[in-house]
Amino acid sequence: MKKLIVLSIALFLAMPTWAQSPKSAENLIFNKDQVLFLADSYGGQIFAYPLKEAAQKEPVSYNVRSLDSKLADALGTSRDKISIKDLAVNPISKNAYVAVHKTVGKKVYPLVVKVSPNGKVSNFDLSKNAHTSYAVNDAPKTDLVFWKEQSLRSMTFTDMDYHNGKLYVAGTSNADFDASLRVINYPFRKGKQNTTTLEVYHAVHNQMETRSPIQTLDIVNLAGEDYVLAVYTCTPLVLFPLEDVNRGGHLKGKTIAELGYGNTPLDIKSFSAQDAQGNVNEVSLIINKSRGPMLINKTELEASAKKDGLSTPAGFNAAGTPFWQPAIGGVYQLEDLDAAHLLTLRRNVENGETEMMSYMKGFYFRLTDHVSDYIYPDYQYTEAGEMWRPVQNMLKIDEGYPETVVNK
Amino acid sequence: MALRSIYLMLWILGSSLFYSPLFGQSETLEPVVFLQQSEFEIEGIKLNNSSQCSDFQLFVSKTSSVEILGEWYYDKGEANFHPSQPLDATNTYFIRYRDKHDQSKWLSLTSSADLKAPTPEVVNIYPTADQLPENLLRFYLEFSEPMLENEFQRFVEILDENGNKVAAPFLGSKSEYWDRDHYKITLFFHPGRIKTGLKANELHGRPLKAGHSYTLLVKPGWKSREGIPSETSFSKKFSITEERRSKIDPSNWQVNLPKLNSREQLIIDFGQSLDHINALTFIVLQDQYGQEIEGEITLRESESIWEFTPTLPWRENALTIICDKTLEDVSGNNLIGAFDTEKLAQITAANKEKTHRIPLNLK
Questions:
Q1: Rounded to two decimals, what is the model's pTM?
Q2: A333-385 per-position pLDDT tens digit
Q3: What pLDDT does residue B54 have?
Q4: Contact call for residues B32 and B13 (beta carbons, < 8 A)
Q5: Which of A70, A76, A105 faces B83 most closely, judged by CB atoms?
Q6: Which residue among B148, B155, B165, B245 sits deepest, i.e. has the most Cβ atoms within 10 Å of its Cβ?
Q7: CA distance B213 to chain A (A)
Q8: Residues B214/B238, Cβ–Cβ less than 8 Å
Q9: Mutate which of B42, B84, B108, B228 to disrupt the A interface (most A C-beta within 10 Å)?
């Protein structure tokens, strides 16, 4: 009887609500129809803002330097009072949306600012823009704080993806098994969300783990089957069949790779990319806190999905699905911008500033980050190297240095 | 956090300190006002006399090329800025604008507010009389700042002549009785000990005894909502007289009439102390059309004198004092009967008229 009462209260709490604004802004994503979703970990709510921005059909590049200072200026504060939480790109307009926490006195204000490709910063009003919201019924209620800094409540939601009318939201719940994956229908409607509690084999720790949440996820289709591709701290790569996730309950994932000890993954995005030879590849790119970026071919994921998962200790080694490390260092937020570009937020190692930079897919580096023989004024391309001239010219224009183009 | 809007006059232009040496000439924008949400947060900026100036832009520094996000709007010669989220009162901000000669000018804005939240103090203890009846119902403490809840039992004591604590005089409920903004708390004496014929009264008697002197002590350390503790103790010495159990009789009131067409005070002398909140809220003045007359009420002489200063001069000769019959003195006696009267219900039924009216004629 007591359980029934608790359940009915939970149902009531899970009803969609309007005209509220978020308490925090940890995660942002867009779906294909320009709905901006904001995950508010402290408020235990997901907000949805349907936008109608004009389409940008041509490929665009972003070369925005000193974004922290720009945001601080625009928000009337200093760099130390703002913290960038997430990045999302409107798939239609290609405008970037950045979630920011701004501190004034003892209060933290969650904000979203829009950054256009030309670097112009404008406000996105979280209370005035039309929106709906959905409160989950199982947000963690403890004030548990890790390393004196990161509270458990900030991990109510860690990442989310949208697929076929459902939001898949990773994070932490108040269930016995803390790591969870919530499935929420959109448009939001009355009723309890479906929460799956998760368990994975951790090949570095050599144990089953249930607490530490998925840090980042993406929904991928491997050989006709949909999966949640999830990355955990320290760094298991895990598959959960979407069908099982939709069913709810408790789920054991298949650990297909151990990507390296001592690391927290920051973001994963799957996309198609053309390489220098013109071949189109389906890939997943993972960026990390303590390790370089990792690019995984979809064919490798498909091969791993067919095999048994890892079940033996990996020690200090990587194991399972192989990956390649592209040259996009310092990146802490990742988005699929358009057919030709990725969009990133990265930390400039010289001045500590955030830069909003696009990278050309396939190349996965920025030519203008480096001083090499190629850029000396009297450099002559060799016969064999002549093929790089048009490529480098294209990159120079894309990265905002059209004046350095060298013609024959 | 109390989100009361305080208009803070920051500085008056004319002081050369606030002008950019680059641009020299002073302007006539005065004064500049911040609409402040709390000690740390600015929710708006207002510039008076700015109708001849244009192109206002707000920046965090003169070298910044990014305007602060928000909206400028212009109204009745004022330029107003509303930021997209509160600004930080610890920062200096810069306004660039064009003056009436179309010259570009800078104005720097620094909040002069004391950025440390103020130390709270007890500013009034009611009743203010130093002789109080044995069946006193409550004390009120009024603070200079909005205060934190659930603290009063730790900080409030009543001491007798020998400095001994009076045991548990107040209603020790978990909820506290604060006004909406948390400036004033009502401390109720335990009603079971005040009312006669109840067990608590028979067992323990009244907490304060006639013929004795006491001190109400508010100890330091009581925190304001901003987390700043009070630094000094506050006390009120008083002596206790016999209980007061008689109905308030308005026929004993003396009314001093002001002169017509003046703003002289209308004064009521109750001949006894009334509960101050009752006296401030349950007595109003109406003109012959039933309209309430606007003005300010001051209480004097231990809340026994009520003084009303009208906002506008007295224009009508006929007016009426309207007094709610539940108006109480400090012991809960009202116009219907004495507090703790067994036949109160019957008396209430007999007095269907809820107000007592005193017609007046000004000359």
A1: 0.64
A2: 999 999 999 999 999 999 999 999 999 999 999 999 999 999 898 999 999 99
A3: 87
A4: yes
A5: A76
A6: B155
A7: 45
A8: yes
A9: B84
